[in-house]
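User: These chains co-purify. Model them together.
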Amino acid sequence: WARLMCSSSAVQKTLEEMVKKDKVVVFMKGTPAQPMCGFSNAVVQILRMHGVDSYAAYNVLDDQDIRQGIKTFSNWPTIPQVFINGDFFGGCDILLQMHQSGDLVEELQKLGIRS
Amino acid sequence: MFELEQSICLKTTIRAKLTQTLKPEHLEVINESHMHAVPAGSESHFRVLVVSPQFEGLSLLQRHRLVNETLREELSSCIHALAIQAKTPQQWSSNPSLA
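Assistant: Joint model of the two components:
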């Protein structure tokens, strides 16, 4: 049990470093080149549409610790998850709805990314 | 038949919990599992449309967190994916569509 606790807090620390390392970070099923789930694919397509191509993508199917850990970290129950500037931004629906409303363009402009 | 009853059951649970917590003016709960690569009769993929005055003044992220929190038990056990649309009554009356 103690070991579990220890490894779990280590995972949380690793995740914090991961989301801060790059401006845009995506936790998804599969990879941008080969998404393994429709919702993850939607996120990849939306980012591509907005010209965001240099983002960090982590495949949660490769690592059970990260798959469970990221849900705890962001207090968000599902994958995919998008982080911008180290902050949790949302899942597929939020990205899609902000894309439709035009708010995503504004968010990305803050990062110096022009759609 | 058993699977069908179960599906109605989870949908009812989702509806009841959201109704109780968010007092929606309009609520749609749709089982979209058939659109995904899961066995027939599955209850894994849901879409909800919630129109509630409680979303007034909240960001999209805060609204979705409210819905997720309400369905925490279901999300951690049986729901694989939950598509959420959370609107205020004003937003809904100006554009009453699911998309």
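DSSP finds five helices and four strands in chain A.
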